[in-house]
Amino acid sequence: MTLEVIVLAAGKGTRMHSVLPKVLHELADRPLLEHVLDTVRQLRPARIHVVYGYGGEQVRERLADADDVNWVEQAQQLGTGHAVRQALPDLSSDALTLVAYGDVPLIRADTLRAVLGQCSGQGPALLTAELKDPTGYGRILRDHTGAVTAIVEEADASEAERQITEINTGFIACSADGLQVWLDSIDTSNGQGEYYLTDVIGCAVQAGATVCTVRCADPDEIAGVNSQVELAKSERRFQARQAEALMETGLGLRDPARFDLRGDLKFGKDCVFDINVVIAGEVTLGDQVSVGPNCQIIDSEIGNGVEIRANSVIEGVRIADHCSVGPFARLRPGTVLDSGARVGNFVETKNTTLGEDSKANHLAYVGDATVGHRVNIGAGVITCNYDGANKHPTVIGDDAFIGSNSALVAPVTVGKGATVGAGSAVTRDVPEGQLALTRAEQQVRTDWQRPKKEKKN
Ligand code: UD1
Ligand code: CA
Questions:
Q1: Confidence of residue 457 (pLDDT cuts 50, 70, 90)
Q2: What is the pLDDT, as a whole number, of residue 119?
């Protein structure tokens, strides 16, 4: 049997108090719906149908890359049963169908596989969970033999039924033709005036089908996101899961509760992160990379034996082996550090290559620059790359020495082995091996006397 998945994502998410459709709220920088799609893709379904409604254009635009999705519009949200029905015309009748929710992002593929494994084709299979507090969920009704007879929504449940702690997670597997038949016989005569997908279960049982269930052991997996509080809880659970998986494969985390990954991290042996490190986008680390507290690293490639010290922000950067960065460094996109280069505190770089063993250790801005090997960039050096209208390059040759507090007014080239005296404003190229100096001559005034404080009577 081929598998087709229907993801319900039409709800507005009123309790988010947001103009954004609920499924576009983000977990680790990605929409909730994308997390669900990633998981169901692992089941290798023949097709994925997403039922969208509220803020539909926004949802489709944001997920424009999901070219394996068949978008099904539910113009009015008349209930989960109505939502699934919108997708039925697009299902092949012999498909096994799995219904998932776009706002339940932490479900695992293995759990869904277990549900699919229970679905005989004769009757539906349900993912249920045992909750201490089942409030808000549909309850699973069973007869004296333990067989499922129906699901009752909380709004329609009797006092006795509300005591039941086995709940419907919402994940249901069923043959497409079964869904077709049973969805046809449901109506809106219930407490919420909605078409309940859950009524399919009662219909199936009445038609003689047996309903199988799989109990989900981890309640985190089935937690829905309906409010900012639940979104934040899901984020922490997701992060905890990621941190654990990374540690299992060797990443050292001083405190896994104070680490966030919003993207993809690859790393070598013996990498250690201090607290409050945030990794985003695609980040690759070699062996023995240490990252100090409060660092943000985005879309960067970092080599072996690199030390990133506290409070550094690194984005769109390539750092070769044995470099040292920070504390308090800001490396902006297009920065390349060749091996052994050092960027120290309060240094900003952008679109700049710093050659092997070159240093900018204190308080500098180096932008649109190509810096050779073993160059020393003194404290307070600025490449004046912007003339108010255009950006210009600075080139600094190997072994050059740029004295403190110098301004290199681009476009300008400092030749190999050249020296720029401290405090210079360099507006013309400096030849190889020469000293350039623009500072005013120092004067010594022998006749000068320091003013004396006048005595007040
Ligand atoms: C549903 C189940 C309930 C289960 C709970 C688990 C029904 C009737 N009830 O209740 O048994 O315990 O989920 O979380 O199915 N949606 C649409 N179109 C609609 C209505 C909903 O796409 O017309 C989507 C929502 O965006 C959401 C999902 O379906 O992703 C569930 O809808 P929601 O209203 O949250 O269902 P519950 O009342 O929580
Ligand atoms: Ca819900």
A1: confident
A2: 84
Is 188 a pocket residue for ligand 1 (Cβ < 6 Å)? no
What's the CA gap between 37 and 140, in Å, rounded?
Answer: 27
Domain total for the chain? 2
- What is the rounded distance in angstroms from the CA atom of residue 400 to the CA atom of residue 359? 11
Please list, in sequence order, all residues whose beta carbon lies within 8 angstroms of the beta carbon of residue 225, skipping any fewer than 6 positions away: 22, 25, 27, 32, 103, 104, 105, 231, 234
Cβ 11 under 6 angstroms from ligand 1 = yes
Q: What is the CATH number of the domain that holds 65?
A: 3.90.550.10
Q: Which ligand sits closest to the CA of 171?
A: 1
Each residue's pLDDT tens digit, 14-65: 999 999 999 999 999 999 999 999 999 999 999 999 999 988 899 999 999 9
Cα separation, 455 vs 388, in Å, equals 51
172-220, pLDDT tens digit by residue? 999 999 999 999 999 999 999 999 999 999 999 999 999 999 999 999 9
The token duo for 139 is 């309850």
**154 CA to middle of ligand 1, Å?**
12
Q: Contact at 8 Å (CB) between 123 and 178?
A: yes
Q: What is the pLDDT of residue 121?
A: 67
- What's the mean pLDDT when you consider all of the chain? 96
Q: Is 286 close to ligand 1, i.e. is its CB under 6 Å away?
A: no
Are 328 and 295 in a shared domain? yes
Residues 164 and 83 in one domain: yes
299: domain range? 244-436
Rounded to the nearest whole angstrom, what is the distance from the C-alpha of residue 80 to the centroid of ligand 1? 5
pLDDT at 326 over 80: yes
* Rg of the chain in Å (alpha carbons): 32
For residue 224, report the distance from its CA to the centre of ligand 2, in Å: 6
Query: Does 299 share its domain with 391?
Result: yes
Q: State how far the Cα of 156 lies from the Cα of 101, in Å rounded to an integer.
A: 22
Q: Is 79 in the pocket of ligand 1 (CB under 6 A)?
A: yes
How far is the centre of ligand 2, averaged over its atoms, from the C-alpha of 218 (Å)? 18
Question: Does the annotation mark 144 as catalytic?
Answer: no
| Active-site residue, selected from the candidate residues 82, 362, 373, 392 | 362
Residues 260 and 141 in one domain: no
Q: Are residues 202 and 250 in the same domain?
A: no
| Residue of 40, 52, 80, 168 to test ligand 1 pocket, by largest number of atoms within 8 Å of CB | 80
What is the residue with the minimal CA distance to atom 39 of ligand 1? 137
